[in-house]
Amino acid sequence: MRTAAVIGTGLIGTSAALALTGRGVTVHLQDHDPDAARTASALGAGTTQPPAGPVDLAIVAVPPAHVARTLAEAQRAGLARGYLDVASVKGGPHRELEALGVDLTRCIGTHPMAGRERSGPLAATAELFEGRPWVLTPTAATDTEVLNLALELVALCHAVPVVMDADAHDRAVALVSHTPQLVSSLVAARLEHAEETAVRLCGQGIRDVTRIAASEPGMWIDILSANPGPVADVLARVAADLGETVEALRALQSRDEDERREGTAGIEDVLRRGNAGRVRVPGKHGAAPASYETVAVLIGDQPGELARVFADAGAVGVNIEDVRIEHSTGQQAGLVQLMVDPAAVPGLTAALRERGWSIRQ
C-alpha cells in the first residue's frame, strides 16, 4: 500500500491516517467538515489535496448510518482499488450496500476495537490501535486483493486481525461494547442530582464504572441506532438479573429467616456469576486478570513520583504487567496499584519498602 484516502477525520479516521503516514503511506483526507480535515492534516495525518488518480485503499470512517451512501459515492467516483469501512456495526451497512448495488467484490467491512471517551481529530493518536483486535467481516464476494489490503492496513496500525461474520460481530459488540456504554451512563446518571456529600465519597469503583459515561452522546446515538435489537436483547437479560437482585435485597430486609437466606443466596449467585464472567475477560497477553496480584503503593502528587516507583520496581527485575491509580479526594496523594506476577510480590514489596515507599495491603 502506497496511497490511501480517509473519508471522515474523526478519532478513528485520523488515528488510522496518522498510523499510515507514519509508515510512509501517502494519505488523502476528506470530511464533510473542511475544518476537521484541515485539523487532521495539521496534525500530520495527510493532505487535504485530492489524489491524482485512484488510491490503493479508501477508508470510510463515518457513522454507521452514512457508511453505505458514502462508500457508494466514493466507488462511483473511482476513488480507490479497494474500500473498507470502520463502523462499529457491520450487518446493517452491508445490507444497505447490497441494496445500493455497490460492487461488493471491492469492499469489506471492518471494525477496530479501539476508542477513547474523547472524539474528533484532536483526540487521535497513531498508537490507538496497537495490540487491539481489528475485526474483518469478508463475505464470499470479497476479492482477495481487497482482503489483503485490509490485512495490510491492520498490520500497519499494529492491530490484531480477527475474522467474523457481520451479524455475529454485531451481537458480540452489543454485549462487550454497546451495553457497557449504556450501563455506565445509567449509573452515572444517578450522580447528576445526588447530594454533594455523597458525590465527595466517590472512590475508584464508581470511577471505573462511569469512565465511559463521559463519551459523546451524539456518536453513541448513531451507533446504537444501527444496532438496537442485539443491544435491547442483552439489556433485557440484564434487566431480568436486576429485577431478581432487587427482590433478593428486599428479602434481606425481611424478619423471616427463610426469606433472608433466599435473599443472601440470590445476591451470592449474581456476585459469583460476576466473578466467573470477569475471569473470562482477557488481560495482557491474553491472560486473565486474576493471574496477577496487586501491590499498592502510596505516592505523593508530585512530578516524578510515578517514574521513581516504576524505576525502583525495574531495578529489582520486576515487570509491571498493568497499573491503576486511585486518587484520594481532596488529598495530595494517591494509591498506585501495580499488577505483577504473584511470585514477584514478596520481593517487590520488600524492595519498595527498603527504598522508602509506603505499601498498603
Fold and architecture overview:
With 361 residues, this protein is an alpha/beta fold. The chain is built from 13 helices and eleven strands. A seven-stranded mixed beta sheet has the order 2-1-3-4-5-6-7, sandwiched between helices. A four-stranded antiparallel beta sheet has the order 9-10-8-11, with helices on one face. The longest helix has 25 residues, at 228-252. It comes from Streptantibioticus parmotrematis. Pfam families: PDH_C, PDH_N.
Q: Shape, please? A: globular
Gyration radius (Cα, Å) is: 24 Å
Contiguous helical run count: 13
Order of helices and strands: EHEHEHEHEEHEHHHHHHEHEEHE
CATH topology category name of the domain at 3-165: Rossmann fold
Largest sheet: 7 strands, mixed
The N- to C-terminal Cα distance equals: 52 Å
Across the major sheet, the strand order is 2-1-3-4-5-6-7
Strand share of the residues? 15-25%
Beta strand count: 11
CATH class of the domain at 3-165: Alpha Beta
* CATH architecture descriptor text of the domain at 3-165: 3-Layer(aba) Sandwich
**Helix/strand/pairing category:** alpha/beta
Mean pLDDT: 91
- The stretches of 5 or more residues where confidence is low (pLDDT under 50) are none
Percent range for helical residues? 40-55%
GO molecular function: prephenate dehydrogenase (NAD+) activity
Pfam families: PDH_C, PDH_N
Keywords: Amino-acid biosynthesis, Aromatic amino acid biosynthesis, NAD, Oxidoreductase, Tyrosine biosynthesis
Protein name: Prephenate dehydrogenase
